[in-house]
Amino acid sequence: MDDMGYDVEDFYMIDPMFGTMGDFKELVFEMNNRNLKLIIDLIPNHSSYKCGWFNKSIKQEGKYKDYYMWRNASNQDELLINSSITPIPPNNWLSMFGGSAWTWNEQRNQFYLHQFSKEQPDFDLRNPDVNKQILNVIEFWMDKGVSGFRFDAVDFLYENISLYDEPLRPGMSNLTEYSEPDHIYTTNQPEVINTVLEWKAFMDNYTKSKNITISSLMASEAYADVNILMQYYGNSTNPGAQIPFNLALVRCPKDDHIVESIDNIIQIWLAGLPENAVANWVMENHDTSRLSSKFGAESVPIFTALKLALPGIEVTYYGSEIGMEDNMYLRPEQIKDTNIAGIGDPKLRKPRDYERCPMQWDDSSNAGFTEEKKSWLPVNPNYYKLNVETQKKIPTSNYNFYKKMSQLRKTNTLKNGDLQTYNISKSIYILKRSLLEHESYIVVMNFGSETETVILSNIMSNLKDELFVYLGSENSAYSPGNKVSTISTGYPLQL
Fold first, then answer.
1. Which residues contact 155 (CB under 8 A, 6 or more apart)?
2. Which of 153, 147, 149 lies closest to 188, judged by CA?
3. What CA–CA distance (Å, rounded) separates 377 from 379?
4. Could you mention a single GO BP entry for this protein (predicted)?
């Protein structure tokens, strides 16, 4: 694989390195027995260059002729006269993975577009045959028992048909790096929204035709402005993705303005939500450094409390429950994904494997991830002390903190209650969840490095003089049942 599974050779098969279709059916069966639903990745923007469709497109066979984005060279007329001349790309578009987004194919005598690596040619989704093929893929896997999809890189689905050169960003002087042009012609084109709504309608019609009572789930990955992502939701009469991933917190920088940044992200997202839409929060993913590596190990329960106390859907990246760290001990020969991590932060130039290493279940060989001699990527050397089984035995561990915060989400207050936020300093951020005739919960977080005293009655009204601690992080020195004064006398909150 060129891009660890994002270069699909056959959209209707299981790669033998992962098993068989029989294994897949067993997975669905066992998940259903546990009242779990399976959501799988679907990459509709491109295929592998080894895909049979691409090979037929090169040969211009039948309907496959225009399956992909083929374009003539800028100097096509000269090439027809003198084949020794170097073909010039149609425009200045750049690939996410470096270099031109166009690669010349000598057999077809045209360029093909690839917004990612040259081994990942882009489909032409304006071709109705391609869109029909994507719908066939959706139906195929739903027939196999899949309950929904995460549609990958949907902001790249379409490009401007006029092939205009992309302009430089302010302050940039040349066009050699992906971060330098403003990608107004290659990302977030207007057709994306209609396509998302069309795919969701197809999925809903499928579930209705099969008398499936649970709605199919559609999640979409796109690094786009909030006003664009809100359109992914659709509306009550024409619904779209239930989870257009909110990736703003993933990109939140580590600086003195972190509290302000977090509050702005939360307020902007909640203010833009369409009626009946549900918010979602993503703080770690497969393209960015883990929280414990970015902000420090002591920050893990802070972000756990934040994401699990917010209203809506919380998306957990495996390992964040225990505070897994990037495996910075990988040697060059151990890195499988050599492509750059441009997604989310175009300036990043590091392999993404550091945050993709195996889940650390216990202190046995390969952290209990596999019984083979080697795992797909090396396990972080800290697995012998940072693992699930070890943390289960420690009441104040990240694992148990995550578990207790998750239990709190089952309360009516956190499921249906109001949210109030208090951005009172560069260090202290507070959430209050309340619901009429139910208990209220206050989450107080210290993002700074100094001890802070917080007088809650100075910040919010109608509080009792004394509150009880539901949960405290290991570094807070508070245990469940401890009392805290909301006024200046007694024992005010200290973090």
1. 187, 188, 192, 222, 223, 224
2. 153
3. 6
4. carbohydrate metabolic process
Q: 3-class DSSP state for residue 39?
A: strand
Ramachandran quadrant class, 31 (left: phi over 0; alpha: psi -120 to 50; beta: rest): alpha
For the chain, the average pLDDT equals: 93
Can you spell out the DSSP letters for 413-472? HHHH-EEEEEE-SSSEEEEEEE-TTS--EEEEEE-SSS--EE-GGGTSSS--SEEE-S--
Output the CA torsion 290→398→314→338 (10° steps): 20
Residues 6+ apart with CB under 8 A from 77: none
Nearby residues of 253 by Cβ (< 8 Å), 6 or more positions away = 261
Beta strands in 292-358 (DSSP E): 313-315
What own/partner pairs with CB < 8 Å and gap ≥ 24 does 83-88 have? Answer: 87/111
> How far is it, in rounded angstroms, from Cα 397 to Cα 387?
10
Helix, strand or coil, per DSSP, at residue 132: helix
Half-sphere exposure at residue 82, Cβ-oriented, CA atoms within 13 angstroms: 5
User: Catalytic: 372?
Assistant: no
Of 194, 240, 152, 190, the C-alpha closest to 232 is: 240
Measured distance CA(95)–CA(89) in Å, rounded: 12
CA dihedral 329, 334, 340, 345 (to 10 degrees): -30
Closest to 263 (Cα-Cα) out of 484, 51, 430: 430
* b (16+ CB within 10 A) / e for 101-139: bbbbbeeeebbbbbbbbbbbbbbbbebeebbebbbebbe
Supply 28's token pair.
Answer: 């669905």
> Looking at the chain, how many residues does it have?
495
50-107 per-position pLDDT tens digit: 999 999 999 999 999 999 999 999 999 999 899 899 999 999 999 999 999 999 999 9
Radius of gyration of the chain (CA): 25
Closest to 226 in 3D by CA, of 189, 274, 263, 268: 268
Q: Is 152 a catalytic residue?
A: yes
What pTM does this model have? 0.92
Distance CA 277, CA 285 (A): 23
Q: Which two tokens stand for residue 336?
A: 């499988």
Match 């997202």 to its residue by tokens.
269
Catalytic residue among 3, 122, 124, 221: 221
Q: What is the dihedral of CA 15, 54, 112, 60, to 10 degrees?
A: 180
> Would you give the DSSP letter of residue 376?
S
Catalytic residue selected from 7, 119, 152, 287: 152
* Predicted confidence band of residue 345 (pLDDT cuts 50, 70, 90): very low
Distance CA 237, CA 316 (A): 30
Residue with tokens 């940072």: 386
